[in-house]
Design goal:
Blueprint: H1 2-22, H2 26-30, H3 41-61, H4 67-91, H5 102-109, H6 111-123
Length: 125
């Protein structure tokens, strides 16, 4: 039961973040797009938001193994894939989401491994 709650909560978090990517937090998310990415930051934000919405919806509707485990690994991979954005926000000293100091941006980096672990733990057998 704890894993199911964790999975549903992660799904809700991803749906909330994905919605933010496409609406009022869009500019804040653009601060996390590394300057070295050869794509328009808004395009990156929109597509990552779509991915978060898809993962969030899937987490709220996929309960049988092995699909649930595959989904957890996909969510973990997504969190690993966007981690360079968090690193870039720190290195490039970009403000966003109240992360307006090096200390706050550094502490944010610690959250990404937690998300990876959450995705894997909540969806394993």
């Amino acid at each position: 039961m704890i894993r199911e709650i964790g999975q549903a909560a992660l799904g809700a978090v991803l749906l909330t973040a994905g919605t933010g990517h496409l609406t009022k937090q869009r500019r804040e998310f653009q601060a996390q797009v590394p300057s070295w990415i050869p794509l328009d930051p808004d395009t990156v934000v929109v597509w990552s938001g779509v991915a978060e919405l898809a993962l969030g919806a899937a987490l709220l509707t996929t309960w049988r193994q092995p699909a649930r485990g595959y989904l957890g690994r996909a969510a973990a991979a997504f969190f690993v894939g966007v981690f360079p954005g968090n690193i870039a926000q720190f290195v490039e000293r970009k403000d966003g989401f109240g992360l307006d100091t090096d200390r706050k941006r550094a502490l944010r980096l610690l959250g990404q491994p937690v998300l990876v672990a959450w995705a894997l733990a909540a969806t394993r057998e």
